[in-house]
Amino acid sequence: xxxxxxxxxxxxxxxxxxxxxxxxxxxxxxxxxxxxxxxxxxxxxxxxxxxxxxxxxxxxxxxxxxxxxxxxxxxxxxxxxxxxxxxxxxxxxxxxxxxxxxxxxxxxxxxxxxxxxxxxxxxxxxxxxxxxxxxxxxxxxxxxxxxxxxxxxxx
Length: 155
Fold this sequence. Notes:
Layout: H1 3-7, H2 11-31, H3 36-52, H4 58-65, H5 68-80, H6 93-111, H7 117-154
Helix pairs in contact: 2-7, 3-5, 3-7, 6-7
């Protein structure tokens, strides 16, 4: 391949180069992100705390709330081994909207008071489904915005 051909790639070569660059940037953002298991554990813990509130004494709720401490330590140890995250984009509209919807969903789910353990189990399933979907969408929008921000800074 002579230098002129390298400087002017065909449309097929250019599209494959762009696809490779896009895949590499998405892998880079994912490699610096928090683990999915952490997000799942946080969703499960919040769902549990929201579901059994009112059924158990407050001391048990406080001791379950203390489980956030090992989760935060796990995240800190895990992220020390990874690349530093790209800072959040300043105008992260989708991330903010999902965060507001998560807060509102949690407020509305707190209005549903479970009086039996069967109702608490149903509330936990609903809470896990709602918060899990919203947390997944929030992570996906954050990853997408970081990739776009990196692409804009590269140009």
